[in-house]
Amino acid sequence: MARYDALQGALPLLVLKILARRGPLHGYGITAQIEGLSQDVLRVMEGSLYPALHRMEEAGWIKARWASTEHKRRARVYEITATGRKQLEAEETRWHGVTGAVAHILKHA
Amino acid sequence: MSWLSRLVNVFRASHLDRDLDEEQRFHLDSRVEDLMRQGLTRAEADTEVARQFGNRLGLREQSRDIKLIPWLESLLQDARFGARRLRQSAAVSAAAVVSLSLAIGGCLAAFALLDALLLRPLPVREPESLVYFTHGSDRDFRFATVFSYPLFERLREVAPAKVDVFATSVQGPQEAVLPDAGGEEETVRAQYVSSNTFGILGVAPAIGRLFTSEDDQRPGDHPVAVLSHAFWKRRFAANPEILGQWIQLDQRPLQIIGVAGRGFTGTEPGVRTDFWVQGAISRRELLTDANNHWLRVWGRLGAGVTREEAEGILQPAVLDFLREENEGTRGKGRFGADPPAPPTLRAQAGAHGLSPLREALRRPLLILAAVVALVLVIACSNVANLLLARAATRERDLALRISIGAGRSRLVQQVLVESGLLAASACVLGLLFARAAAPAIVRMLAPADNSAYLDLRLDGRLVVFVAALGTLTTLLFGLAPAARVFSLAPNAVLAAGVSRQSSRLGLLRLLVAAQVTFSLMVLFVGGLLLVSFQRLMRLDLGFVKSGVALLTTRTSSQREAQSAPLAGQLVLDRIRQVPEVEAASASGWALFSGSVGGVWVQVPGGARVESSFLSVSPGFFATMRIRVLEGREFEPRDLEPDAPPVVVVNELFARRAFPGERALGKTVERDPAREEIVGVVDNAKDTDVRAATPFLYTPLRGVGTLQVRTKGDPLTLAPRLRSEVLRVHPSLRVTSVTRQSTLVDDTLLRERLLALLSGFFGILGLALAAVGLYGVLNYFVVRQTREIGIRIALGARGPAIVRCVLAHTALSIAAGVIAGLAGGLYLARFVAPLLFEVKPLGFWTLALPVAALLAAAALAALPPVRRAVRLDPVAALRHE
User: Fold this and answer.
1) Is the full-model pTM beyond 0.90?
2) pLDDT tens digits, B55-76
3) Contact criterion met (CB below 8 Å) for B678 and B631
């Protein structure tokens, strides 16, 4: 799955950005957001989102709680923390740096 | 690491797995719904989702590792860090662990004892529907729980469907010949039981069979025995071949038919049973004599029958029985002529068995448990002290970490892990201590030749108790330092350096006050018990207990017993010729041996006196050094067949029987004889050191127990005496040799145990409090070095410095003393029934513990105070 691999390094960045913009979301909501916003170009290998989320949770970037949905089901909802916002800033800067550099090379090589 | 992770997984992973699974499932379901909304069928959607999602199990494992490992690693890291810090101050940590483990071990031992004696129900079917019966005619538990065989038989017939009645005998050591002993007698503990006992209790055999109801129908018919599992294992190495072999008990052969199931040790906690015999095979007079009370009567209540109903059902039968008995023996019965108030039958809850030992020890054990719990609190506050004082040295370090972003909860975890390490190592040590201490205490509960037996096991209940205790102690002494971490204001600490400490001192002072309070309580109660025991030991017995050897003898046949009067004198004459022997005599049984004889004596034309009696040989009073107040003691001529019947009485008897008159030369009537009082002797005590009873002595025609007063330790002469007895009288067997003083002291075992243990824990508590005080003062002096240095530099002299150091703690000590005395007096209310001639509210009982505490406090304060006074101001001012 090429699409998945392309996403590997950027997944935390996307998750943090989405959570920062849209507020608390559950895992499936995050998946749907990524797909919707990228017009289905970026598709997560859905299951692998969760280990990534849990890793970010342990790192303290996001925090989770159980909430019930409109269909009365228990869903685990993630929310960005202050540390996560700092992290998002750093990652975003880095991402722009890297993509800028790559774009530069593609253009001028 | 692997055991730790496994341990942690047990109580964390299952919960975690459930959460992870639920989260995945929510995702999958939502996706399926969306796909179906887009027009896919259920099956198509399922396949699509499974393909899209990936390996569910693998992903879950990944998540689990992410969640568990950092936590474990942090825990391990904290454990290593904690262990290192504990090692850094090894001496202090060791002191903390040792004091904690003594206290925890004490608690565990107390729990093991309480569990075995009070808490654990009998290992039988439905123990809660068991009852045992008491009759209200006697307040003494030992007498209120025994019934005669004829009465038991009557009760058994009343209503078996509602109250199924069975009986067990009161048991003591007996001599028996076991199958592989080659004819040698040994001491065993046999218990007579009615043959329905095992059936009603629901005890199953390990091998062979148990008694059946038919075994009882014809008295003396089926001489069979059932071994206890423990005895079978201990004495016969669990050999199944033992079935069918014979035991010789009481000159009666018994065939072994089975071994009771493992775990069933009888119905009396505190007593060991080697084998059971049917009650119906015991001696005929025991089965027919309504005045011989030797059975404990039990009942199994039918479904829905309450204890009150059971009493109502059986009480009429008791009254009927007594009425018939009194009609049959009017005026003849020894005690029957003066029948006490008709007894009221009471059914007592029997789930925990019936145990005179428990009744005697309930209060002492609970007091002991309270004492060790107090010591545990002292030890905990001591360790809290230690950790707090040490946390002070780390305060800057902690503040620094918080200010650079370390999570406070992480730091609290670290403090708690360190406390947990201390508590865990103390628990392990305490467990070892308790395993040694609890059996030692059990050995101290009863005399060596009649030892108490308690099933002290290391089972799940004890493990749970240890775990709870460990957690509790960790929280008790770990929370205060942990709370400090939360309240730490990093900026203030980092800016202010050493001078900021007031709130910590407040906490330390509170801990000092608590330690003083609790140790004073323990000391006060321990002091009361010790003084009471001392008083008991110093009581005048009316005879001199030291230097007397007691030889219990038994003739092997009836014929020998008849020739014994002569033989007894010969044996005594022979013994008196041994050079080390000062005096020798014989009596029916020894004073304080537990045997008692009771008689009603009629004064012609006067009162009836209830009296103890004992047959003694000439020379008894001289040997025991009981003073003869008037008249004479027995002489050999009193033993001659045609001698006039004479008795000797004690002063108490004389006063009761002949108030205001001289008793010497008067006659008394004892059915059927009239006897003349030829001597009045001092009141020698028997069975109880606290009080004497009226006593009537008659001349002994026989041997019984020999008293031999010797120079030096009486027991060193025992082998010599034994052989002298055998030489004169080959068929006379010496069954046991002991000291008279041992018998007396054995009646005070409970008091001795309580005094010793509470004394020990009192001193331990005092030592802990002193160490705690030392720690606080020392800490204070270290922290105040600069301030003290400035004061000295400005001209303050010794007394002012001492005041400056002590001012902070004197108030806490004073508060602790007041609270401790109040607490001690409160505790004393529970102790009071065990005290002998000691009033808790006395000057000395209050002053002495306080004095001891203040002395210990002064001792503890000395080193820090000295350091403060001798401080070199120049060095102090440079101190940071």
Assistant:
1) no
2) 888 888 888 777 777 777 777 7
3) yes
